[in-house]
Write a structure and sequence with these properties.
By secondary structure, this protein is α/β, with parallel strands linked by helices. Helices cover 46% and strands 13% of the residues.
């Protein structure tokens, strides 16, 4: 209902009663006008009624939502949705985004969906620039796939710009299957590079990267793929150093920034790399950084032409759901709302780190907090015999016990001799990011975006309880073993349990 129609209501209701509504409507129209002209993230978030009004009005611009009879569809794909619940779930946005040759292209019969697609990409670019990458994120595009497939598309988009014999992707090892399989799926050959041990942390072996470039020759290499966000004890790659090598040898550089937008350190590393060397593309997940359902990834870079080639690589049209989710979330939060989420996450990380340090002090006989300060999201607790009181137990039982008590996301990494084969490539010590990481097994816990301090406290209480139980079990086993050696078979486990309380 536009302002003229609101004024016309004065013939039905006392004009004075309409003044508040007219004021609200003018405010909304001003905010909408500013959004469409500036295409930047608003400072303050929009209300839910404003968001719904916007999305419904845009949906009415798609031809499948026109009044019955005013649109005659004679094509094979006319945005028809048979289930009313599905129609309402998607606001009637059934045509998707893009066209057969480019996922960012507009559709003649889906003007509203096309506006959502274009506006979302503009806001995402501004979002990345405002939160750490003013120079690296000159252009951004949302692709309706998760991070692994987005990395695959980035690699495929480079094929035409590299020599015909370029097949290798240099990849500083990170034990996460999606990024590795992205290389395989793109038809290239991964060259894993073991990280170096620096105290407790695992860092990029830049010397090995240079050595492999010189060994294979730049013309045989498609790209170097580095990582920011990762599980401790792995820390973000030395992006600036790798970017300098890529600039020196003329090699494309892709960064897996899966959940790095939530950490200023990761974003600063990307921006720094783009100014000191070569950085072509960096990829971030929508669900981890914007708290939306899984299904979208934001591909960004300092050169709009390079980013556009990735969008053109996507075959066919695509779902509009990830773009719609991202648009609504960005407008709901505004710049100040997302900044509050970042502050909340930073506080949760500090509370988790300090809590784990305190817990490690109380249970110093069985755990130690690893010093991984360069990882701004994930922490690791070395398990000194936890879960293996008689020397042959499974440390993974601690992770299982946490899960049974409602703690999701924590994981126990065995490391050591564990071997995992991925598409014919064998990794020893898988999960620990290194063939022989000396401080495995360990427990990972992360302070991700949206985590509250209450969740941190609840997790620490559960973990403390489990470690106390583990200590008691180890003490019982030890004393029973001593009694057996001394021939004192009358000292039973039941008695010990009672003695230890």
């Amino acid at each position: 209902m536009n302002s003229d129609n609101l004024l016309a209501l004065g013939r039905l209701v006392d004009q004075r009663y309409l003044q508040p509504a007219l004021g609200w409507r003018r405010g909304f129209e001003n905010r909408l006008s500013h959004l469409l002209s500036q295409r930047r993230l608003p400072e303050q978030g929009w209300s839910e009624p404003e968001l719904e009004l916007l999305i419904r009005e845009l949906a009415l611009l798609d031809m499948n939502n026109a009044n019955s009879g005013s649109c005659i569809g004679v094509g094979e794909r006319e945005g028809r949705v048979v289930c009313p619940l599905v129609y309402r779930r998607h606001f009637g946005l059934a045509h998707g985004i893009g066209r057969s040759g480019d996922v960012t292209a507009g559709q003649p019969k889906a003007a509203g969906s096309s506006v959502i697609n274009s506006l979302t990409n503009s806001l995402l670019g501004d979002w990345l620039r405002q939160f750490g990458c003013p120079k690296a994120a000159k252009c951004a595009v949302l692709i309706p796939v998760a991070t692994g497939m987005a990395l695959c598309l980035c690699l495929l988009s480079l094929r035409s710009s590299r020599p015909s014999n370029a097949k290798l992707v240099l990849w500083p090892r990170i034990d996460q299957k999606s990024c590795f399989k992205a290389i395989i799926t793109a038809g290239f050959t991964p060259v894993p590079i073991e990280p170096l041990l620096d105290g407790d942390q695992l860092v990029t072996d830049v010397t090995a990267v240079r050595s492999l470039i010189e060994q294979h020759g730049p013309d045989s290499i498609v790209a170097v793929m580095t990582t920011t966000s990762c599980f401790a004890p792995r820390v973000p790659d030395r992006l600036a150093d790798v970017a300098k090598l890529c600039a020196e040898f003329g090699l494309p550089h892709i960064v897996n920034n899966a959940y790095g937008v939530q950490a200023s350190r990761c974003m600063n590393l990307i921006n720094d790399a783009s100014t000191k060397g070569r950085l072509d593309l960096f990829v971030q997940s929508c669900d981890k950084n914007l708290l939306v359902p899984v299904g979208g990834a934001v591909i960004a870079g300092p050169d709009a032409a390079v980013v556009s080639r990735v969008a053109a690589t996507y075959p066919g049209r695509a779902s509009a759901s990830p773009s719609t989710d991202a648009l609504l979330t960005l407008l709901h939060l505004g710049r100040s709302g997302f900044a509050r989420l970042l502050d909340q996450r930073a506080a949760a990380y500090t509370r988790l780190r300090d809590g784990l340090a305190s817990l490690a002090g109380r249970h110093s006989d069985c755990v130690r907090l690893l010093d991984t300060g360069k990882n701004p999201i994930s922490l690791a607790l070395c398990l000194r015999g936890s879960g293996s009181s008689s020397g042959g137990g499974d440390p993974g039982r601690l992770g299982a016990a946490l899960f049974r008590r409602g703690c999701s996301g924590a994981r126990v990494v065995a490391g050591g001799d564990k071997r995992v084969s991925i598409e014919g490539y064998e990794f020893q010590g898988y999960g620990a990011h290194q063939t022989a990481y000396p401080f495995a097994p360990y427990l990972n816990a992360a302070a991700g975006l949206g985590m509250s301090e209450t969740e941190v406290d609840s997790f620490l209480v559960v973990l403390d309880s489990l470690l106390t139980k583990e200590f008691r079990q180890r003490e019982i086993d030890s004393r029973v073993a001593d009694a057996d050696e001394q021939g004192d078979n009358d000292y039973s486990k039941d008695q010990l349990t009672e003695d230890l309380g």
